[in-house]
Structures are given as structure tokens and as C-alpha cells.
Amino acid sequence: YDIGIAEILLMPNSRLINQSVKDAGFRDKYNLNVLGIRRKKEYILHDIKDEKIHSGDVLLVQGTWNDIARLSEDQSEWVVLGQPLTEAAKVTLDYKAPVAAAIMVLMIAAMMFDFIPIAPVTAVMIAGLLMVLTGCFRNVESAYKTINWESIVLIAAMLPMSLALEKTGASKVISHSLVTGLGQYGPVILLAGVYFTTSLMTMFISN
């Protein structure tokens, strides 16, 4: 899942022109293997290590997605065709699901039980770091892109809202009104009232 392929188009002024694939140093400098060359309508797939690179050649390279991403930093020599990193992001890391689940369970346990002397924020940060170190995310950037900022803003807005309700006594007034007004109709109606009240307040905060 971490290995991919990409095509690069050699620029006319590239220093690799007239060099052999072996002398180009893709493996030494970029940890990439050249699998083939497309030259106009011809495909060269065998014995390419001694093949000289021509202007306009398209090289098919293989390596990790991070190493392929490094090729985009040197646009004076070549152009990476397509969007290999975008395609890589579409590949799901299914085999890492048990690892991610175990990290999540440990994080929740650290937040719930007092015998683990870790603050909830610290537990979340450690879990995120473990996700990256164990390969559940390819890199920190991909982990950053998965953050749902709308949820972060919603949670950030709910914290001061709940504190204000508690300090002003509004939470007691609301809970007392719900219990006295709906408690006589049974627990189901009371729970429904709590649900709709919290939903209404959540809609107010999120908008």
C-alpha cells in the first residue's frame, strides 16, 4: 500500500539527457526504480539500465509515495504526470485497521480509568502520534487532512456554552422544567424532550 508508481516526463534541458538509466542515479538519490521508458509510441521494458535517456522520454518509476513526492521538488529536470499523491490517498490501509482499533481502545481506557495518570488531552495526542508512527497514516500531512474542522469548532463552541449554562443556573432551570413538565408522562416522553432540547441547542451552536 505504501509502494506506488508514477510517470515523469523529462524536460529538454534536463541533465539526464544522454545519460543511461543506471548513471541517472534514481535508485541512489531518490530510492526509486525505473521500470520502463515510453519513447513516442515505443515502450522499452527490458534491459533498460544501459538505455540512454532522450528528451521527451517518459519514465515509469516505482517507490514509496513519499519518495515519489520528492520528485515534484525538482521541476527543472522533469514533470511528474498526473497526481500520484492524490491517487495514493484513495488507497485504504485496510490491513492497519486492527492497529488503529487497538490504539483507539487504549486511548479510551486512558481517558476513562483513573489508574492511568494521563490527562485526556495527552491521551489523544499520544494516540494521534501512534497512528502516524505505526503507519495508520502515511505521514503527518495526511493525518492533518483527515481532521474535521467543523467538529473541532463545534466542540470548542460547546465547552464555553456548557460552562455559561452552569454558571448562570440556566442548566438547572432547563432540567427542572423538563422533569416537571414531562416527567408525569413517563420516561420515554422525558427522554424525548431531553433529546429534542439538546438537538435544538446543538443546532443553535453549530449555526
UniProtKB/TrEMBL annotation:
<dbReference type="GO" id="GO:0006813">
    <property type="term" value="P:potassium ion transport"/>
</dbReference>
<dbReference type="InterPro" id="IPR006037">
    <property type="entry name" value="RCK_C"/>
</dbReference>
<feature type="transmembrane region" description="Helical">
    <location>
        <begin position="147"/>
        <end position="165"/>
    </location>
</feature>
<dbReference type="GO" id="GO:0005886">
    <property type="term" value="C:plasma membrane"/>
</dbReference>
<dbReference type="InterPro" id="IPR004680">
    <property type="entry name" value="Cit_transptr-like_dom"/>
</dbReference>
<feature type="transmembrane region" description="Helical">
    <location>
        <begin position="185"/>
        <end position="205"/>
    </location>
</feature>
<feature type="domain" description="RCK C-terminal">
    <location>
        <begin position="1"/>
        <end position="77"/>
    </location>
</feature>
<dbReference type="InterPro" id="IPR036721">
    <property type="entry name" value="RCK_C_sf"/>
</dbReference>
<feature type="transmembrane region" description="Helical">
    <location>
        <begin position="122"/>
        <end position="140"/>
    </location>
</feature>
<keyword id="KW-0812">Transmembrane</keyword>
<dbReference type="Pfam" id="PF03600">
    <property type="entry name" value="CitMHS"/>
</dbReference>
<dbReference type="Pfam" id="PF02080">
    <property type="entry name" value="TrkA_C"/>
</dbReference>
<keyword id="KW-0472">Membrane</keyword>
<protein>
    <submittedName>
        <fullName>SLC13 family permease</fullName>
    </submittedName>
</protein>
<keyword id="KW-1133">Transmembrane helix</keyword>
<dbReference type="GO" id="GO:0008324">
    <property type="term" value="F:monoatomic cation transmembrane transporter activity"/>
</dbReference>
<keyword id="KW-0677">Repeat</keyword>
<dbReference type="InterPro" id="IPR051679">
    <property type="entry name" value="DASS-Related_Transporters"/>
</dbReference>
<keyword id="KW-0813">Transport</keyword>
